[in-house]
Amino acid sequence: VVQRVVEGWQLSSVFSWISGAPLTFTPGTTVTPFVLTTMGFRSANTVDLVGNLPKGSGDVVKGNGFVQYFSGLSVKQAPQPNFGGDPNLPGRFTNQVVVDKSGNMVFKNPEPGTTGNTAINMPGITGPSSLGLDMALSKKIRIAENKMFTIRADAVNFLNRPIWGNPNTNINSTTFGRITTATGNRTITFNARIDF
After folding, report:
1. Do 32 and 23 form a contact (C-beta atoms < 8 A)?
2. 9-18 and 130-144 as β-strands: parallel, antiparallel, unpaired?
3. Where are the chain's structural domains?
4. C-alpha to C-alpha distances, 157 to 81, 106, 161, nearest whole angstrom
5. Residue 1 has pLDDT above 90, yes or no
6. Residue-wise pLDDT tens digits, 159-171
């Protein structure tokens, strides 16, 4: 009886680590940069890098009801531009700048008629990486000379770790740097089979 309990077990696993996708900081209303193609030349609307990007600013930090990715960065209202108009006239200016913890400006919107000085898919700036472990456990039991019963359990994302989406990289958004999507809940499936 003991031999039948301990024999026929199989354990398998798949471990994976995926580095984050490259990120592009944008001044637009969408996370994807606007790309203009004219006569084979491409131009994208990115932001201007005007300060030092803090090291380690790309870490997932869970806040109170939100998830922040650029922990050392925040947004604030950009200085009002001087276009030579009457300063008493009401206007709406919603541009923002990104500042570090000391209040030093890091990113700003490009000047009118120009594109930003940062690259699409900035080197060294990536979204969250993900770590995965899938496991399977099965047991084969001989129930007759030519009949075999197999029971199996498969666990996808065995560690039940979230797979975070990319953060919002639009510097004019109130949710700049926040991650609003995650997938990867653990899934366990059981199945049984008879071979005859």
Report:
1. no
2. antiparallel
3. 2-195
4. 50, 37, 7
5. no
6. 999 999 999 999 9
